[in-house]
Each structure stands twice: as C-alpha cells, then as structure tokens.
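Pipeline run #58 for the internal structure catalog. This entry was flagged by the ingest filter as a single-chain record with no existing model, so it goes straight to prediction. Upstream metadata was stripped on purpose; only the residue string is passed forward. Reviewer on rotation: M.T. Logging verbosity set to normal.
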Amino acid sequence: MSETTIEHLRTRIGREDDATPGVDIASCPDIETREANLRAILLEMASVVVAYSGGVDSTFLLKVAHETLGEKAIGAIGRSPSLPQTDFQQAVDLASLWGVRTHVLETEEMADVNYTSNSPDRCYFCKSELYAKLCEFAQQNGFQWIADGTNLDDTGDYRPGRVAAEERQVRSPLLEARLTKQDIRALSRRMGLPTWEKPEAACLASRIPHGIPVTSESLEQIDKAEDFLRSLGLRQVRVRHHETIARIETAEEEIEKLLDSDVRQQIVNYLRRLGYKFVTVDLAGYHRGSFVPESSQPELVQIDA
C-alpha cells in the first residue's frame, strides 16, 4: 500500500489531528500478551471467515487473521441498506489495497417483518440473517469458523445480536483474547491501520427509535444526511430519525459549528430536501445508543430558519 493511498484513506476514515487521546501501546498494560493470545487463537482456528464491516474492530481482526493464516482467512461483507455506503466502499478499498481476500454477501433482513418492525431485539434478526449467509458461505468454501469483532468492552452493552452469534457458534477472537477497544486502537495504530482512530460506528437502523418501522427510504435518508454533515467537518455525528424530525447529535465540542449561521442554513436546506420537516440539535451532544429516555426528554434547539 503506497503512502499516498494510506494518507488518502486516513483522510477519509479518520484524522491525525483528532487522534483518540491516550491510545498508545504504553497505556495498555500486558497488551503484547493479549496480542500473542489472539494470534494463537487464530492459529488454532486454522481457517476463518471474518464478519467484516470496515470498523475499528473487524478491520483489525481481519488484518491479524490475514497475517496469521494467509489465504485461510477471508473477510465477508454483508451489503445491506443499513450499512453506510461510504463505510462499505472504504472497507472494500482497504482490503483490496492490503491484498486481503473479501467476499460481498447480499443480506435480506429488509424482507423480514421481525426486523423492519423495529422492536428492541431488531439486531437479533439482522445478525441471524447475516450469520446464516456466512455459515452457508463458510460451508461451501471449506472454512472452519466464522468470527466477529466483539471485544471485551462490548460485554457490558445490551446486544441481542450476540444471541444470534451464539446460536450459529460464531466465535469472537478479540473477546477470547481479552482485548479491549483501547487495546485494539493502540495495536491498529502501531500496525498503521487508518481505522485506529475511526469514530464509533453502528448500523443506520440504530438511528430509528424502536417502534418506528425501518424502511429502505429512511435508511437512505439517514445515510445521506450523516454523509453531508461529515462533509462539513463533523467527525462523530448521528442523525436520529424521528420521522419528520431530524435530531442531530455530535460531540459537545462540535455543537458550536452547527450554530454558525451559514452552516446552519446549509444543514437546514439539505435535510429539508431529504424530506425532514424539522431539524434539531441535541444539546446533550453525542451519546452512544441514544434515544429519548422515558424519564426525561433531551434538550433540543431547533435550527430550522
């Protein structure tokens, strides 16, 4: 991979001047042991299909699996309306530049009413569809295992998709090696992966409150809105989709950018063209897994002119 190409991907995926603080090898005690354990786990697996999305965790896992197992490791990308198109293309481009084998699978969770009805266990049905396709691919192509990018920090979250993984005997080598998110970012940085400082990501359906149906149109609307906001220089951003209302979350230090009169008008105009009637900013800033809690309403400021 040329330096020019690495820098291009780094610019698209993350920025050095916004580096995640404290992410270096020295800040992660015993990290070398955990990395060695990961490589030993992968050797024991012998061959693996990595569920690859281009995020921090799955990118690191695929790269280490490729270094450890060579052609016996492959990344499988589930192409879905819920995966941001920019993320999909970056994942494909990065693996291609490494010379890592990848395979694109078309997933069909949008045909499942259990998924589109958007209940709190929506993720279970999405992952069930993905892992079913991955199992079929692995069996047809002689791979012994499927692996996902779950790490030690993920065990404290509510993740219905983990049930689907257990049902399909999907392994989580990063978790088995006791690697944390900070470990993965630090090791990725040392390996020169442009994803080491990539902001946290989640599927586009996570922007839609439970009970509001997931549609291809709403996912496309969210994807275009967030892509536009990133083009304005916002790094960690979510557009929470409340049907006709777009609730923008971004890092607290970036909220002021949204209130600049010129930027504000650009955002209002663009999101209205996408179909939103009202455009708001959540003054609490970005918060992972955010939806309006039953006990308290978020403080909103409308930036509709």
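catalog note: Residues 14-19, 292-301 have pLDDT under 50 and may be disordered.
catalog note: The longest helix spans residues 122-141.
status: ready for reviewer M.T.
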